[in-house]
Write a structure and sequence with these properties.
Helix content is 72%, strand content 0%. By secondary structure, the chain is an all-alpha fold.
Length: 162
């Protein structure tokens, strides 16, 4: 195995470390952001069943072991997870978000370099993951704002009498 093959999975571990740190810091928000990554992965699995695109490693040599037949190429699950994770981390912590975005791009590129995905697989995966994660974050933010505004009672300020 080359360092590229190991790196395609290692970057997912980096996302797990970031989520772990954010979970300690932000608790529920980080848990819900992680749930968004799971939803994005589930959506990508449904898309794979509909599209059923063969992998490039079926017809050309690759650096990585080619997944079993029936494990479709479009979209790249690694890229979906990377895109969703980067967007979720970005929503919680801007500095880590930049690191996560670079890691997501590296993860996606590595899947093409090792020969198990086409460029359009990883581009669609990054986009799908980021959009699903962003949609869930936006919905949670809107719900939180509605709850906060419903909890706030109108305040009456009386001027002081002298």
């Amino acid at each position: 195995m080359t360092w590229l093959v190991i790196g395609t999975d290692a970057v997912l571990f980096v996302f797990a470390l970031m989520f772990g740190w954010l979970l300690l810091k932000l608790r529920l928000r980080a848990f819900l952001a992680g749930a968004g990554v799971v939803v994005a992965y589930a959506v990508s699995e449904v898309v794979k069943l509909v599209v059923q695109e063969e992998r490039p490693c079926r017809t050309a040599p690759s650096l990585a072991v080619c997944p079993e037949p029936g494990d479709w190429s479009f979209p790249s699950n690694h890229s979906v997870i990377a895109g969703a994770s980067a967007m979720a981390i970005w929503a919680m912590h801007r500095t880590l978000g930049w690191v996560a975005a670079v890691c997501a791009l590296a993860a996606a590129a590595s899947r093409v370099v090792v020969g198990v995905h086409y460029v359009h697989d990883v581009a669609a995966g990054l986009l799908l993951g980021a959009l699903v994660s962003w949609g869930i974050a936006a919905a949670l933010k809107k719900k939180n704002e509605q709850k906060r505004s419903a909890d706030e009672a109108p305040t009456v300020v009386l001027s002081r009498l002298r």
